[in-house]
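Project standup — Tuesday

K.O.: blocked on the structure for the chain from last sprint. Re-posting the sequence here as requested.
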Amino acid sequence: MAAAYRVDARRWAGLFDGLMDTIGARFARPEPRRRVRDFVAGLLAPLPVKNCWTIAEHAGDDGPGGMQDLIGRASWDDALVRADVRDFVAQRLGHADGILVVDETGDLKKGVHTVGVQRQYSGTAGKIENCQLAVHLSYASPLGHTLVDVALYLPRSWADDPQRRTEAGVPDSVTFATKPQLARALIDTAVAGGLPCRWVTGDEAYGGDPHLATALRAHQLGYVLAVACTHRVPTGHGVQQSGQIAAALPSTAWQRMSAGDGAKGFRYHDWAFVDLPKAEDQHGGRHWMLIRRNRTTGELAFYRCWSPHPVPLHHLVTVAGRRWSIEESFQATKSGLGLDQHQHRRWKAWHRWTTLVIAAHAFLTAAATLSTSSVTSVPDGLIAITVNELRRLFHALIIEPARPRADAITWSIYRRRHQHAAKTSHYTRQALTEP
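H.V.: unblocked you, prediction finished:
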């Protein structure tokens, strides 16, 4: 019976080593190769706050300079590292029916100097706040789901301001792009990179953009994209709004189905879909309006759908349900991996921090599949090992035992020396102006 409770710690370590060796090949010198490994290990650690100081202390460095150099000044291409992560995900989680999920998340920030920051609506806060916004691409398959790519949203107030761009190190090639345009670029990159996928899903910000839908049809990617109740579509009775279509449906049009497993049970809703033959274009395929009705409140949600081939209702419902997987990824990366804890104002540093968080999350997701694929690894009375639980186990069993105890004393000395220098500087400066 004890064998059933064993974990795959050695296989997790081998998987981590393989990913870090692949990423490490992007660095010409051994120092950044070691540091990037230590940096990702620090992201996986249960540190109360994650920044270059705490990660350097966790790694046993003699100061934060090396980690700050890795994020801000060292020579490496974060886009190529994300390509490595995408290939890793394709190998470990890839499936012919893979789903690409697009969504943005916001990080609340103070001041006006952090790249991309302005007062704008943040879905994370649910209101207008001073924040950064970034569009993320997630990959979901029957094996798991993880973030794979990202694009920072640069508002016009930044894109059209040469001084702010220069101060934040925004490349000249970066121009203003809407969030759907950023999502399209991320999807184009994933498809060109060979990530196996068949579907795309996203919320109203993406479903309301006709250019994105056209681009997906050109890729022959099916989609289930949320739209507003006022979204207009061509029908046999003329152009109608989504809400009008729903109001005209008979009671027999609705079917009760689950959009997937939830922590508290199956996520049942009432669903209906309407064929839209008038929406056909040069890409062929089938168009639908998918409608979801809350069983308790009767609240409606609407989705524009397309597939190069006919599919049953339950297939569209499944794709719609996978949209929530990216929210789980945001929660896991913010609560456990420090996605929103970066303290970097410049373009390059922001992308590097976020890229390494994505790498850490992809590793955890892939490692979790090693456990769920083993018949004996999930005995009765236990759920499968989650990403959050695997992060705790990996640190306790693999990372922590390798750390010398002297590191704690070394960093205590370093912090106190730094604080002494800062205190002396403050008193010296005060003495110049005070009697």
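K.O.: great, moving the ticket to review. Residues 347-372 form the longest helix (26 residues). The chain is about 45% helix and 20% strand.
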